[in-house]
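For the sake of clarity, the format in which proteins appear in this thesis is described at this point. The record quoted next illustrates the convention:

___
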Amino acid sequence: MIASRDGDPAELLPGRWSPGDAELDSLASLRLPSDLAEAALRRLRVIALLYSAIFFLAAILPNIACHLIRFVEPTAVCSRGYFTTLRTIGPPVFSIIGGLAVYFFVRSDRPSVSARLKMGTAFQ
C-alpha cells in the first residue's frame, strides 16, 4: 500500500460496509405504492393523448382546413404537396401513432405496472 504525503494510509483503504449501505441498496428495489403508480399511469395516459392531439392539431388539421377552404375560395394558398409524400406527412403521422400506441399500452391491464411505467419513461 502506498501512503499519502501526510503518511496516512487510511485514505487509500476502501470504504467500510455499514448497515445503512444495505438499506440504500434495498431502496432501489422498492416499488411505488399502488395508488401513486395508478396516478402516474393516469397522467401518462393523458400526456400520450395530448401528445397525439397536439401533433394532429399542429400538422394535419391546418392542411386539411386549408384544402377545405380552397374549395370555397380557390385563391387560398396551401402547400399543394403536403399529403403526397411520406417525407412531409410521415413524421406527424408516426408521432400520432406512437402517442396512441403508448396510450393503449398503458391503458391495458396485461403488462405489469412496472412495464407500463418503464414505457412511460421511454416515451418521455
Summary: The mean pLDDT is 83. Residues 25 and 36 are 22 Å apart (CA to CA). The radius of gyration is 27 Å. DSSP finds four helices and no strands in the chain.
